[in-house]
Specification:
Elements lengths: L1 H39 L7 H25 L4 H12 L4 H4 L1 H7 L4 H24 L3 H7 L2 H21 L13 H13 L3 H10 L6 H28 L6 H18 L2 H16 L5 H19 L4 H13 L5 H26 L9 H28 L4 H11 L4 H12 L5 H26 L6 H15 L8 E5 L3 H14 L3 E6 L8 H22 L12 E5 L6 H8 L5 E5 L12 H8 L5 E5 L17 E6 L3 H17 L3 E5 L4 H5 L5 H17 L4 E5 L5 H9 L3 E8 L11 H9 L4 E5 L5 H10 L3 H9 L6
Helix pairs in contact: 1-2, 2-3, 2-6, 2-16, 3-16, 6-15, 6-16, 7-11, 8-9, 8-11, 8-17, 9-11, 9-19, 10-11, 10-20, 11-12, 11-15, 11-18, 13-14, 14-15, 17-18, 17-20, 18-20, 19-20, 22-23, 24-25, 29-30, 31-32
């Protein structure tokens, strides 16, 4: 009871702080109005460019302030930016201080064109970002339920909106004969859900990975995609002023051909263009430029076939978002400038066009209320019917209906386009914007209430646990591999492992053979065959693991390149998650690392995977299967040791090998000090067993007794072990050092050893870390770092 009371008090305090901060943000935005408005009095002495800057500053400041306030209250920030435009327009600012509002936001054609140009570019960039953040794999994963919800959730409100337009007063239409086209716009505005708003609330409720959360977001994705196709066709009709069968057929055929080309040949062109820019250009943000060029080109294509440029920008975003190279990094770079500049300006300009003072007219106010009711009932009812048709329970269908009833940015964009091409009147535009604001602000509390009443089943709980392991995983999150191999058996074995752990991800191969006069294609062929073999076996093994990331390997060969530290460093700057090295001559007589291996590895600061074997092991490529022997995985409770275990399990899942996990202390000194209790050791092994269940691999675990860790590993390696996989910490400095345990294993074991290291820590980084920790790290590094024999 006391705990519940304390929790309730904490919630009350948190709510009070949120309200206080929200009030402060709103007050800041409001207090800036007089200052900026005062500056408008100096318009006579200010150039057009100066007034344009003043408009931008005002929209950014007020939009950011109101957006921050609404976000602290659990509402989408984009609604704050839209409300900022409404308040700065004739609805409030123009009503309180008409002269200042007219000076700042002048009706002068040149002045309006400048701010509208930024807003129009903002539409394209918003659609590009929306497409990039749309996860089509989620739609494929969820199944048929979302298609039923999307079909009913679009059709029913679309019919309601189109029918409503037929009964609107003629004064709300932009011109005579526009009722049909206005009905198409209104139907589209009522039928599309905002993916951003829906995903925000679902993610906030921690439902993004729940079954129902994925269905809701996937349904919104499908609706959004259908909506932009519909609006593109509607705009094509609107440009003619009436429906012409010939023109409509041409538009439909053009859209179909564009979509077909984009998701077949266009997908490969976009992927290759992004990879080429990433790998070729040295200048900053070259990939961003290429993405913008792709967006502009596809927007021009849709314009040429008679539909709006927004469809081209959205489809470009879909393709860019699926690019296998640096997609997350690219999204982060683009999201910054779009969110900081173009979103506040576009939604601010959209709000400026809405005049809520017209709603003082009782007729328009009643029509607006009726529009909100029709939109809400139609959207909720359509999604609810689609959910029930898909076999959902009442509670689940209610949650789906609540989630779909959020218009947000999508409807504002649709309405803005309709206003710009004179299909919608200003009054009807204001009604649509008001409807979008009300339904969007009402959706988050409704969805939170509906999702909070849904229990979690046992099967769903297990799936979430399994995905939690994937999110923490290293192999599962690899995006791109760099492979350096030679002509020997270790080189071919390393190529096979690259195909297995790469799992179809983009892979670049550098050949480090002794004879560089051989034809490049002949040198590469054995390695490519091994990589393709590993990727093919990974795809076959993944059929029962629900892993959509596995597929045909995409391999790039760097021919006529002499492998050196310089060439590796040059390649590494293009962005790789792992450098895998397989060289036959990598170890010295005392199991130190050769200078060549040290130099190549030293040119890469990311994680390393070294495939090593002592000389005299024969000319046959090592075999991994159930009959060849076990994979031995020493662990010690560190994060990098868990990485090594994950890599071993990923290989075993493909090859069918058995896995033996041996817990060893870091050193005899650690053991004598009792740094790890037996309970802690068992917890480490239990975590790895749970990880093995994800990979469908049967493991055996044990804890070593007394003695040095290297001796225990070597004793276990003598019991029918085909390969040892170790996660090792890369010591600071220019030399390739992993500690005495690793050296002992390499010296005492004859089977192949795979070392998976963490990122490189340079000496200056280690020194800074030591200073931050009061010198403790420096002492520890100094006492543990040892120079390996060369």
């Amino acid at each position: 009871m006391a705990d519940a009371t304390g929790e309730r008090r904490r919630e009350i305090f948190q709510t009070r702080f949120k309200l206080r901060d929200a009030a402060a943000a709103i007050a800041l935005a409001v207090l800036l109005l007089p200052a900026l408005a005062w500056s408008a009095d100096a318009k006579a002495a200010t150039s057009s460019e100066g007034m344009f800057i003043a408009e931008l500053v005002l929209l950014l400041v007020v939009g950011r302030g109101l957006g921050e306030a609404l976000e602290r209250l659990g509402q989408p920030a984009v609604m704050g930016q839209l409300l900022a435009g409404i308040l700065l327009g004739p609805s409030l600012f123009g009503w309180l201080w008409p002269s200042a509002q007219h000076m700042l936001f002048s009706n002068d054609a040149v002045q309006k064109d400048m701010i509208n140009a930024v807003a129009q570019l903002g539409i394209l960039l918003l659609l590009l970002l929306t497409g990039m953040e749309t996860d089509l794999r989620l739609v494929r994963k969820v199944g048929a339920a979302c298609f039923s919800i999307s079909a009913a959730g679009v059709a029913i409100p679309f019919v309601c909106g189109f029918a409503t337009a037929q009964f609107l007063p003629a004064s709300l239409l932009a011109g005579a004969g526009q009722r049909t086209v206005a009905g198409l716009f209104l139907g589209t505005a009522l039928s599309i859900s905002s993916v951003k708003i829906v995903a925000m609330v679902v993610r906030e409720m921690n439902f993004m990975r729940r079954n129902l959360g994925q269905i809701i977001v996937s349904s919104a994705i499908i609706e959004d995609t259908l909506g932009w196709v519909i609006i593109a066709i509607t705009i094509g009709i609107a440009t003619q002023g009436r429906i012409e069968i010939r023109h409509l057929a041409f538009t439909l055929a053009g859209v179909a051909a564009f979509m077909l080309f984009s998701f077949t040949l266009g997908r490969g062109i976009v992927f290759d263009a992004i990879r080429w820019a990433n790998d070729t250009f040295r200048s900053e943000y070259a990939v961003i430029t290429v993405i913008l060029v792709i967006m502009g080109t596809m927007a021009l294509i849709t314009d040429l076939i008679g539909v709006h440029t927004v469809l081209g920008a959205f489809v470009a975003g879909l393709l860019v978002g699926e690019s296998p190279i640096l997609s997350g990094h690219i999204q982060g770079q683009l999201r910054g400038v779009i969110t900081a500049l173009f979103m506040p300006v576009f939604f601010g300009v959209a709000g400026l066009s809405a005049n809520l003072t017209v709603l003082v007219d009782p007729t328009l106010a009643l029509l607006t209320i009726a529009l909100v009711v029709i939109a809400s009932v139609g959207k909720f009812g359509g999604a609810f019917i689609g959910g029930k048709a898909a076999g959902m329970s009442w509670r689940e269908a209610i949650a789906v209906g609540s989630g779909m009833n959020a218009r947000g940015s999508t409807e504002v964009i649709v309405a803005s386009i309709g206003l710009s091409i004179n299909v919608l009147s200003h009054n009807l535009y204001t009604m649509i914007v008001t409807m979008a604001v009300i339904t969007t602000l009402a959706m988050p509390p409704m969805l939170r209430w509906a999702l909070g009443r849904l229990p979690m089943g046992e099967a769903e709980s297990k799936r979430l646990e399994r995905e939690e392991f994937d999110q923490r995983g290293f192999v599962a999150n690899l995006e791109r591999l760099l492979v350096v191999v030679d002509d020997g058996v270790i080189g071919r074995f390393a190529s096979y492992l690259a195909g297995v752990i790469g799992r179809g991800k983009p892979t670049t191969v550098l050949h480090a053979g002794e004879d560089d006069t051989t034809e490049p294609r002949v040198r590469f062929e054995p390695h490519l065959q091994e990589i393709e073999k590993g990727a093919r076996e990974s795809a076959e093994a993944a059929k029962g693991m629900d892993d959509a990331g596995v597929g045909k390997s995409r391999v790039t060969r760097r021919e006529n390149v002499l492998v050196s530290p310089q060439t590796v460093a040059e390649e590494a700057r293009k962005g790789y998650g792992l450098l895998l090295i397989g060289l036959g001559r990598s170890l010295t007589a005392r199991s130190g690392f050769t200078r060549r291996l040290n130099d190549i590895a030293g040119a890469f600061d990311g994680p390393l995977c070294l495939v090593l074997k002592r000389a005299g092991g024969g000319r046959q490529v090592p075999s991994l299967d159930a009959d060849a022997g076990r994979i031995l995985v020493p662990v010690n409770g560190t994060a990098v040791a868990r990485r090594g275990a994950e890599l071993a399990l990923a290989v075993a899942a493909v090859t069918g090998s058995r896995v033996r996990v041996l817990y060893v202390a870091r050193s005899s000194r650690d053991e004598s000090q009792g740094m790890m209790s037996r309970r802690r050791k068992e917890a480490v092994l239990k975590d790895i067993v749970a990880l093995a269940e994800r990979y469908n691999v049967d493991v055996r675990t044990s804890i070593r007794g007394k003695g040095a860790a290297a001796d225990a590993i070597c004793r276990e390696a003598g019991k029918n072990v085909a390969m040892i996989v170790m996660g090792v910490a890369r010591r600071p400095g220019d030399e390739l050092l992993f500690g005495e345990t690793t050296t002992g294993v390499l010296l005492g074991c004859s089977c192949p050893v795979v070392l998976l290291s963490d990122e490189r820590v340079r000496r200056d980084d280690a020194a800074r870390e030591a200073l931050r920790s009061g010198g403790v790290a420096e002492t520890k590094a100094g006492s543990e770092t040892q120079r390996e024999p060369r």
